[in-house]
Amino acid sequence: MSRDRPLRIIGTPGTMTKEIRLRAEADLGFPLKLEELDGLQLQRRAVTDPASFDVIDHWSLTTELAWTARAIQPIDLSQIARWKDVLTLDSTHHLLDELNVGKGVSPREILFVQPDGLLGSTPTRMVSMVPTLYHFDSFGYHPSLRDQLAENEAESWGWLLDDRWRGRMALTAHPPIGIVEMALAAEAKGMMRFEDIGNLTIEEIDALIGLLIEFRHRRHFRAFWYSSVQSVALMQTGGVHIESMWPEAVQALYRDGVPVRYASPREGARAWMMGLCISARCKELQLERAYSFVNWWLSGWSGAHAVRHGIYATSASSAAKYLSDSEWLYWYEGKPAKSIIVDNWGRKVADPGDVRSGGSHIERFKRVAVWNTFMNEYNYLIRRWRDFMTI
């Protein structure tokens, strides 16, 4: 195998950045090929063509899909130098023990490879993925909407299906995410109730899709987006005033001077975790490089890079070495910034005294409502979501 062959990594635009590639290549001494795909494209590639990549950088639900398809291999923790630091925030907060909050399948439940080859929560020396990043997502809205709210009205997922914003609301087009956000909204509005909002039944999926189709006929949804870049553009044009949104999109709008608030819904957040998986076809030199890349990701620089996008790094202690005290206070502890907070390109995110909306990292963690999950009826969900999207 040629030593010039790059390590092939597939992921989504949020982490498949030029800055990540250049820094990793400089530190590791071998070339990387980063390929950006949207969520559905990535999942399809992961399951059907594991020979086309060496590493996956994506959500835990994709890990479960890929493992079921035998497309990824177990990762040996004896070769992960900083594993003890992963999901350890400080001496009193070991987040691996906190992953039982919320509905759906938490990342811990599919993290460890069990002796029978299935995935489970009992620690072993083999994992399905090495967790790298996570967050507690909600939706963004223009502060002008506050003028139409009742006094002291709490932020709620129900706002996404509120008639007050008809024609000004946008939704992610990703089925496993969009369906959960709409379920949270429908339940918050008292329109439906779900036995397990993280694992909808066929009957629940049908009822929810029927409701959403009604909303489409009433022109409630202005647009649907596949990437954070698209969600940013929708808010920038002024036509969309409220939409499901990822943290890097919120930060991009802040930088561009677009006033947007990232909600902390009273019902709790939709949480996700992403990590690195290694293709079942990866071997020899490429396998060595894959392990090197995983260890590089946990070494701190990339984690701090993600933190400045508003996302949490699993290797917090390593990321902290590349963050100022003020950055740590603002991003992780939810305390007033002591100095100007800037992003990775030196553009201002917050002024001294500003507090990140949503509270501290630990406070956010306690408010998880549901995790991104590979539901039992995933294939049926995809088909019915397509019915909703194509009317």
Walk me through what this model shows:
This protein has three domains: 178 residues, 3-Layer(aba) Sandwich (D-Maltodextrin-Binding Protein, domain 2); 159 residues, 3-Layer(aba) Sandwich (D-Maltodextrin-Binding Protein, domain 2), CATH 3.40.190; 36 residues, no CATH class. It is 33% helix and 20% strand. The chain contains 13 helices and 20 strands. The strands form five sheets. Strands 1, 2, 3, 4, 11, 12, 13, 14, 15, 16, 17 and 20 form a twelve-stranded mixed β-sheet that branches. Strands 5-10 form a two-stranded antiparallel ribbon. The chain has a two-stranded antiparallel ribbon with strand order 6-7. By secondary structure, it is α/β, with parallel strands linked by helices. The model has no long low-confidence stretch (mean pLDDT 92).
Topology:
Elements: E1 7-11, H1 18-28, E2 32-36, H2 39-48, E3 55-59, H3 60-68, E4 72-73, E5 75-76, E6 88-90, E7 93-94, E8 112-113, E9 119-120, E10 126-127, E11 130-141, E12 169-172, H4 175-188, H5 202-217, E13 221-225, H6 228-236, E14 242-245, H7 247-255, E15 261-262, E16 269-279, H8 284-297, H9 301-307, E17 312-313, H10 316-320, H11 325-331, E18 341-342, E19 348-350, H12 361-365, E20 368-371, H13 378-389
Parallel strand pairs: 1-2, 1-3, 12-13, 12-14, 16-20
Antiparallel strand pairs: 3-16, 4-16, 5-10, 6-7, 8-9, 11-14, 11-15, 11-16, 11-17, 18-19
